[in-house]
Amino acid sequence: xxxxxxxxxxxxxxxxxxxxxxxxxxxxxxxxxxxxxxxxxxxxxxxxxxxxxxxxxxxxxxxxxxxxxxxxxxxxxxxxxxxxxxxxxxxxxxxxxxxxxxxxxxxxxxxxxxxxxxxxxxxxxxxxxxxxxxxxxxxxxxxxxxxxxxxxxxxxxxxxxxxxxxxxxxxxxxxxxxxxxxxxxxxxxxxxxxxxxxxxxxxxxxxxxxxxxxxxxxxxxxxxxxxxxxxxxxxxxxxxxxxxxxxxxxxxxxxxxxxxxxxxxxxxxxxxxxxxxxxxxxxxxxxxxxxxxxxxxxxxxxxxxxxxxxxxxxxxxxxxxxxxxxxxxx
Length: 330
Hints:
Layout: H1 3-22, H2 28-32, E1 72-73, E2 80-81, H3 84-101, H4 104-120, E3 121-123, E4 129-131, E5 137-138, E6 142-143, H5 150-167, H6 170-179, E7 193-195, E8 201-203, H7 215-232, H8 235-251, H9 276-293, H10 296-309, H11 312-329
Antiparallel strand pairs: 1-2, 3-4, 5-6, 7-8
Helix pairs in contact: 3-4, 3-5, 4-5, 4-6, 5-6, 5-7, 7-8, 7-9, 9-10
């Protein structure tokens, strides 16, 4: 990347963030940054209410298309866009409400999101069905449109399976089955999986080289695989989920810096710490995994990271180091 391109990339990144944080109108950040919460109504081993509540997301109304599908406003040159992950989470949030209350309007919203997922599942150049993002995104390397994500694949599957459960319409199950193909292919072969040199299997949120192993996306995406195994009894997806759990158990210490959790394995001299939001999300995700598996290792790290979040010195240190990372690498 040339010096001019690097400066332009950094300017665009900070302009987008400043616009989102410093104006009163709703932006894409207003959708993502609700407080993470475990859904006490989910039952391990059953396809029912989703693992997290997504309470605020169920009533997101800042920007929708004429059919009621949510869109996120990224401001600047990107503007309002469909984001498959956001649409899946909106649908899951409304499914939770429907499952808990029987409210027909909540089911309608869930199915609006699920219908969008069915209609937009397309094959990538490798012939693998994926949900594309149709806008460039400034990550460490710019993600060029159209790009897809292991996180979108997992949460899309989770939504479609619940839409099938609620409606009985097999189009949702058929689309979920097609989307599952991405979990059987490597990132080099059009999928979202990566096997590292020592044989550990990873699910990748962002597909970049070398892979960055974003922790929250790995966990969230894996729940779609678990849901498919529960809904269909598919042995291969159950085994795949267990292999991902094996990876997670082995690598959790790599995400612990002694006072905070890491967002990813950035491969940079200065590691990328999680923001306060993502640190809280990690804790909730690990508590959910403990409830699903009853494995004490997930509770151990959730408790440890909870203690980190309650330490004022650790929070300040994490904030400063996160800011330094952004200045150095974005």
